[in-house]
Design goal:
The chain is mainly alpha-helical. Helix content is 67%, strand content 6%.
Length: 135
């Protein structure tokens, strides 16, 4: 979504590295798994929503005219994700279960938003996915 390009790029880079490392180390006696974790209920997420709304409130007219729609969309999306965010203890339990698995999957989706958005993104046309995301 808007305003998370650098964050998203860093996650794609980690996915690429994890996939390559998993394939390069096949048969070496250990497993590399990737966990795609959706929104996690946290003070950081709540503070981020407040920060974006404050940024909008204090932006100049020119900034609001240029960036306002992106900031508003980002704030709306973050608020929606917060409503389905998974509890941090549940994330920890799932990660521990993965680490204890004798034969883990290469990839896990943790949280409703991760499961839904990653699945939809692979089968829904881009323009429709943008509409689903409120763009």
């Amino acid at each position: 979504g808007p305003l998370v390009g650098a964050y998203s790029a860093s996650k794609w880079a980690l996915e690429s590295l994890a996939d390559a490392a998993r394939r390069e180390t096949t048969g070496m006696g250990f497993h590399i798994s990737l966990a795609n974790i959706g929104a996690v209920k946290s003070r950081m997420l709540s503070a981020h929503i407040d920060d974006v709304q404050a940024l909008l409130a204090h932006a100049s007219k020119e900034e609001r005219d240029f960036y306002g729609a992106g900031y508003k969309t980002h704030a709306d999306q973050t608020t929606k994700f917060n409503s389905v965010a998974i509890n941090v203890d549940r994330v920890a339990q799932k990660l521990l279960a993965i680490s204890d698995s004798a034969n883990p999957s290469p990839r896990y989706k943790i949280g409703l938003d991760a499961k839904l958005l990653i699945t939809l993104d692979g089968i829904v046309p881009t323009k429709l996915m943008d509409k689903i995301l409120g763009l």
